[in-house]
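User: Could you check the structure of this?
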Amino acid sequence: MEAERKLTAIMFTDIVGYTAMMQKDETKAVLFRDRHRESFRRLHEKYKGEILQYYGDGTLSIFNSSVQAVQCGVALQQEMLKFPHLPLRIGIHVGDIIKREEEVIGDAVNLASRIESLAVAGSVLISHEVQHHIKNHGISTRSLGKFQLKNIIGPTEVFAIDLEGLVIPTQEQMEEKGQIFDRRSKIESNSIAVLPFANMSSDPEQEYFCEGLAEELLNILTQIKNLKVASRTSAFAFKGKNQDISLIGEKLRVRNVLEGSIRKVGSRIRLTAQLVDVTNGYHLWSEKYDRQLDDIFAIQDELAQAIAERLNLTFGADPRESVDYHSTENFQAYDSYLKGRYILHRMDASVQDALELFQTAIDLDPNFALAHMGVGDTLRAMGHQGMIKPTEVSMQANAALDHALNLNPKLAEAYVTKAWISTFYDWDIVQAEKHFLKALQLNPNSDVAHARY
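Assistant: Sure, the predicted structure tokens are below.
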């Protein structure tokens, strides 16, 4: 057949970690690959794509339209993100190629392959040329910057498709993939990270209290409509690191950072907090609270309200009236709960101590919903570490979580833990998805719900 030169949209896909998957569970890996190919064939027929090659865990295909190529890539990725998750990355470029039978050659093919290699599981990355073709077709994109790609002359600007459910690679992930010429990805003004409060007390054992209050405040902020909040894991990674606030903001991709300190002396507490605009280093708001320790709930309420008001003034975000700032008035129960959360986050052999601390909080206040949720989450973690049998996890953890939800039906994280149990202990994918969707309905900004779903 005579070679044909044509302008074509080229798509590469690749299953992330497929080789390791094959080594661990060959049957499961083959099932994943077959699922990928079935969806791939069906969606290419729908969006008029031509499949040229299957190679191991990857594919190569072409389209006459950049719009249809992107629509196909988005649909494919959204299917792969459903249960059971299939970690897929997709790269698309449009350019001049030479096609001969089922073979395509040209610089455009190489560039599409390089863009796919930049992607992370759950993402669809495209070139500047593709972005130009689709920009008037209602498909949202986000620039990730310009990269020097292997065997490609000059920098290439890469965009991520920014649609619901798709993953946007972080700045750190992109820096690991290739040399960045500039960073033009948009950081939205209504975004914030909460750093762990610095412990200014003489007792280093008070770290649990400082981290716990920061985490509680982060959870409150996720309830503010239209406000993007950096996850606890990402924000707390900067604990103890003396880094410039602007660099922290850039790495976390947020416009604003909340930081502060706590000093506990006897029965008194001094909490200092400030909200900083990382683009200029200016303080948008700061406050100092010097109270009795038993007033911690009033401090939380005042702090949350002050930040919410300031964010409303700055971002136009409205705090939801339904937010519960705390669910106990017993300070000793709350203190025990914070200690339990601190230990649980370490995910080590001491996790059983967290269970005892949550139970202590319940003994002090039987109606403390968060403590019951902590029991369920700890049992889930103990099952993960093989400390208790899966059947015990399902029965005991679900009982604790159901009790928590009876006390407070708005606990999104309780539904996330129930979903995790349904997935890995009950093997009930349908029920797990229902729990995840309920969690996201209650709190669309829940980072743990998005991460685990």
